[in-house]
Amino acid sequence: MRIIKHLCFGTAGALIILMIAATVLEKMGGTSPGSSSIYSSPLFIAAWGTAAVASAIYIFKRKLQKSPFSLLLHLAFLVILAGAFATYLNGRQGSIHLRVGDRPSASFAASHKEESFPFQIQLTDFYIDYYEGSAAPMDFTSRIRITDNGNAIEADISMNNIFSYRHYRFYQSSYDKDMKGSTLAVSYDPWGIAITYAGYLLLLVSICGFFFQRHSAFRRLLRHPVLRKASTAVCLLLCPSLTAFAAEQPKHLSKESASSINGIYLYHQDRICPLQTLAKDFTLKIYGKSNYKGLNGEQVLTGWFFFYDDWKTEPIIRIKSKAVQRMLGIKGQYACLNDFFGAEGYKLKDSGLEQDTKYKREINEANEKFNLISMVATGSMLRIFPCRENGKIRWFSPVDRLPDDLPADQWLFIRKSLGLLSEQVMRNDEASIREIAGKIRKYQQKTASGTLPSDRQIEAEKLYNSLNYTKIPAFCCLVIGLFAFIHNCRKLVRNQTLKSKTEKRISMIQSALLGLLFVFLAILIGLRSYISGHIPVSNGFETMQAMAACASLISLLFRKRFEMSIAFGFIICGFSLLVSMLGESNPPITPLMPVLASPLLSIHVLTIMISYALLAFLMLNGTAALIIRYAGKTQNEAVERLYIINRILLYPAIFLLASGIFIGAVWANVSWGRYWGWDPKETWALITLMIYSAAFHTDSLPYFKRPMFFHWFCIIAFLSVLITYFGVNFFMAGLHSYA
Fold it and tell me: What is the per-residue pLDDT across 73-83, written as a single tens digit (0 to 9) for each?
């Protein structure tokens, strides 16, 4: 029995090490080394087989039949592994390239060799569906004809819409530039998918049943007597004062005139939005903030267009690189447009620095800001005029080449309207400014009727643009959370469980603030969802905001039974919001990539985010336990209370992580043609699941019964979560690089 136990857990540990090594190899040499050297090696497959067989024997010997849902849970993982092995033995994957009009094909490319179909396949048509009034693709569709023993079958294949025939599944992969050809991914797996899906179903049933089972370990922990002495968190509140200062402003439109122009529709980031959205994105990009010297984004954007000579001397272009600052001859981070030019012309052109990899990114960023300003000043970025061309709506700027068949009056309106608007701006005639802006909007509504967003969507986007400022809430959350965390640790060290009236009031204020933060984030996420038409979890910014919302909600739900809950909620919210601003403080809303347009993806991401938030709670709780334990006094009761709380939170955290991984596998199977591809993020999510799952086996691994060992484990294990989300995103390539 002891040998079986060591074999079971030893092979699991070896698998974790092998998977870590594979991701390192992929980073060093691309995907092939990791796949060929480890994932497809006999050693790796034998290790999984050994772990599965040893686990089955160990489960049987320990007679887990007394806990039916625990038995079912382990059985589910064994079935999933059996499905993976069936896929390994019988599955084949490849691709086929088809052209409209070509003769039917009876083979596809798979693993550097040709595989034959028991039928013939032909591409009869290919077309792209676009988002309404946009050039952004919404879906790609290949129409195929399959001929099998004289019988012909026709079918459409699009993103997230596969076609199956005789266990062969076809997925839309890519297409030729002339839209006369299409590449389809081909997957053949007659047994593996059915077995694996059966395992997923068993997993779902066992997880649900486990929480409702009366005598489960989770229910016993909830009744633990130590929890009855839990205290509620108290924090100190900082109220930073914000002061505004007056500065000399360049020429600009009044807020009223800028607001009237803001009502104009604009084509930006492959969608139609209010001009305000471009103005905010533009100001954030070049200055790093959404306003400049008290002027909002619309005033900055229109200032560059109407008052270029005045604005070109404004130090508004943020340059973070010291080397680029020296090249431009500026002191500090901000340059004006004139700083880009010297006696010999544009300073950054052929500077020599752009050839240096170390400075190439900084040079490109400075060039990008310069080009953005040039495009706004010349009007080429202001694509505000819709025209019908070849039966479709296209959007043009006043300086673009217009369609040859455009009516003369329409051509004249596009070429002259902004010039007329500029004249009224110079005269400071606000009534005429509003009148001309209204005429442009009417032209847009008449020409692009049926493709424009609704008035409610436009107003929602304006509200979102005005609300989406999370930097101050992020810092406030961190300050409140850290003070609350320190105060709670101090109380636990002193074994203070009673609360004064003042502490109760502060606790209520603290909960109310976190509740307001959740409402604020829920409004932001709801508005972004309504504007984009999909749940916003498609990039790092959106998922971090979702995690902040999940953390705040979880904290509120646990606040009565978990003394650190509110403090942890503030800390996790603060860090999540700060991380969301690492890349871009407000990434633009864009149409969803066709492959991401699946509700399964949204469920997968949200489930994973809730799991990560709970694992972050475990890490912070473990940190608090260490502080209490090593603060100079032994507080065994407080440490044990935190241990019990962590054990309780571990169950939903890991069950949600497992559910999220396998929901993602179903989505991947529908979208990519395979439910598991050993992508770095998939691999590290599995590593995280296996590491934390060890803590459930307290009878087999008695070290986890020791509170201090378990707290150290929760802190160290959280490194796998950080690598899964941040390490993979920033240092490894893969299918999950979009998030």
Answer: 888 999 999 99
